[in-house]
Specification:
The protein has 9 helices and 10 strands. The protein is of the alpha+beta class and 249 residues long. The chain has a 4-stranded antiparallel β-sheet with strand order 3-1-2-9. Strands 5-6-4-7 form a 4-stranded antiparallel β-sheet. Helix 2 (17-36) packs antiparallel against helix 3. The longest helix has 20 residues, at 17-36.
């Protein structure tokens, strides 16, 4: 995950499917429910479109998607989720931003605070790290799926902002308003991204060279990601390959 990606690999969620399929599907259904509050048509609601794309990428059943949309639009009961954002710092001062969906903020807040504390971090005030992130549409396209030069041309014509080649694949970013256009352009040429979503990209990164600090940061990310109310965790840490190798000999 860290150290191998320009913006902290969204393929991480896909890797969790087999081990934690039920929990991941539940999180993705929640995301669809909340997104559908802005309208049940994914063609006019880019946030819903992105949530559905992400759910399909990890094989969330069609009936689950349909039920979540109807719940969000009020056709079915259960639309009582609240969106919360928790901001704070991990070990070595790395910025961490947690996006949550919960039906009980009095339960969620102390649990998130505890996770930060046990990993050597702390929660901060609203806005303390949000300034360091921009919301983007993000895609990972397999390296073998397209010629780099042609893919770059396609992405830029569709409104993409940047494309970076990494070990994970071609990492494409775009303004959220252009998410549909980039997604449709890829689909029109038969390119299926390994992953896609609307997410947060850090403006700068903190490089971690100490293995113990790196371990604490990764533990914080793991525990937050595993919490049932946490939808997305964004951070600006970067762990170089040689440090990662010390953690995974």
């Amino acid at each position: 995950m860290a150290g191998h990606s320009h913006w902290a690999g969204i393929k991480h969620k896909k890797a969790l499917v087999d081990a934690k399929r039920g929990k991941l599907w539940s999180k993705l259904a929640k995301a669809i429910i909340v997104a559908a509050k802005g309208g049940g048509d994914p063609d006019s609601n880019f946030r819903l479109r992105a949530a559905i794309d992400e759910a399909k990428a990890v094989s969330l059943p069609k009936e689950n998607i349909t039920r979540a949309i109807k719940t969000g639009t009020g056709e079915l009961k259960g639309n009582d989720l609240e969106e919360l954002v928790y901001e704070g710092y991990g070990a070595d001062g790395v910025a961490v931003l947690c996006e949550c969906l919960t039906d009980n903020r009095n339960r969620t807040a102390p649990e998130i605070r505890k996770i930060f504390e046990v990993c050597g971090g702390k929660l901060g005030a609203t806005g303390c790290v949000a300034w360091n992130f921009d919301r983007k549409g993000m895609f990972i396209v397999p390296l073998e799926a397209a010629d780099e030069e042609k893919l770059m041309e396609l992405v830029l014509e569709a409104g993409g902002e940047d494309m970076v080649k990494s070990d994970d694949g071609y990492e494409i970013t775009c303004h959220p308003d252009n998410y549909h256009a980039v997604s449709d352009a890829l689909a029109a040429t038969g390119i299926n991204p390994d992953a896609s979503q609307l997410g947060l990209v850090p403006k700068d990164q903190v490089e971690i060279r100490d293995p113990d600090t790196a371990a604490r940061v990764l533990k914080l990310m793991e525990l937050l990601d595993d919490h049932e109310d946490v939808q997305n965790v964004s951070s600006n840490y970067n762990i170089p390959d040689d440090v990662m190798e010390q953690l995974n000999p």
